[in-house]
Amino acid sequence: MGLPEVSVYGAVFVAAVMIIRAMAMNYLPKKTFLVLWEMVILRLMIPITIPSVFSVYTFLGRSINRPPLLKAEMDNMTSTISHTLSQEHFWIEQSIESADVNSLSVSAWSVIWCIGMLFFAVFFTVSYLRCRMEFRTALPVKNTYVEQWLKERPLKRQISIKQSDRISTPLTYGIFHPVILMPKKTDWENVNHLQYIFSHEYVHICHFDTVKKLAAVLVFCLHWFNPFVWIMYILFNRDIELACDESVVRQFGEKSKSAYSRMLIHMEAKRSGLLPFCSNFSKNAIEERITVLMNTKQTTPARLIFACLTVIVTVSLFATSAIASTDSSLDGMLAVNVLQTGTLETDILLTNTKDIVSDKKSPMSITHESADILYYEDGSPYIHDILTNNTDKTITETQYCMLAYNEEGFPLKLVWNFLDSSAENSFENIVRSRENLLSNQTEEYHGGWSLYDGEIMKDFPKVGNGEPNQVTYALICLKEVVFEDGAIWNNPNYENWFRAYAGKEVTIEELQNYYPYEYRIELN
């Protein structure tokens, strides 16, 4: 799964957490939202799919959820990238086999992503280093209450309490050697305020909030182009503070809410600069913190159970992807790789490509039973193909080429990934399917490869002049098959098939009699 596709999944997850946060802020423990944000961060950091029958994408089904899932392989920035967009169940993979105009256009987007990522990485790094330079001038605090407080809270990581004239509000920084940094003008005689401040910062230290903020910054740099990640970054930092506030109030009792709120107001101050990896009493969202603190209900066993269920259900629905299954009620996960062919040699024509495969069924063969143009409930068209595995092995992955023709047999150049504004039209569409197909089993699934129809898809980005769908026939040829035992079959006749059909007019009779198309499988 590529970065943009991860970002889209993450955006949906962020939106879900935002809704839950808005509805249950005063009813659930604040730790609940912090855990949800942490799950969002993990989802955005780890580019893998976790198929689940409980995923919201599985529930929606291919007939409903066909949002753009953009994927570009960011780890090969120097390679020519084929940047495409397709249905939700499609993964988009890179193609380094060409260097045409479309690839160059996509590479420009990769460069823009790199520039943005480096800009924010440098921005946060410089801000952090500048703060650490200023913090070096901080001096240890020599105070009886401070010394006693530190003795009562031993940690494997030694905590230091220092003071500095460079800040106006308390903060905590450092991971292995955490430091609670206090303003030089702190009233060291006000023990009530000090106990709240130290307890608040101590919670940050115990919860490794500096590490969490570092992870949030990393995700922000990677997904800087995603507005939902900006929202996540802001709300995550707010909820860290809210969770700390709640922990402190729980420690000192419900009666401490008023005194603690007054301390927050007292400590409200403008900061001298950005502190991306520090936890502090900033004025940001101070009103929200006090309002939430005063309105938060007391935690009960029932609320804890509901909070756990909320986390489990939300993660199960939005942190997972649609399950790949051969059952007819579930859709297989497909992956797309658009192969840019450049200039094709057209001097090789086969009068009858059925000669490519054996007329007799081989004990080791695979058959394309059909490839029909079907329609979803909303009238939008798609290509639905059916494959039969006549071998004695389980198929785990297939790669095949699609070609489209109109009702008169003329080849069609299509924008196969019509949701990608940078995609260009081409005769061929290279598809990679990672759906298991058992021995002697015929593939069964709903849905297929969506085709653009300007008359039906009014809500989709307009392609060309918004023409209606013209695809009447689809020819498909396997290029590669991967079996469960690791064996790989590469179609030796694929190139001849491609030269015979791609961009060539085909008779109606041949189009109608193309299927079933059988491949003889010979493995070493």
TrEMBL record:
It comes from the Bacteria. Residues 382-504 form the DUF5780 domain. The chain crosses the membrane at residues 6-28, 40-60, 108-129, 214-236, 304-324. The keyword GTP-binding does not apply. Residues 5-293 form the Peptidase M56 domain. Keywords: Membrane, Transmembrane, Transmembrane helix. CDD domains: M56_BlaR1_MecR1_like (cd07341). This is M56 family metallopeptidase. It comes from Parablautia muri. The lineage of its organism: Bacteria, Bacillati, Bacillota, Clostridia, Lachnospirales.
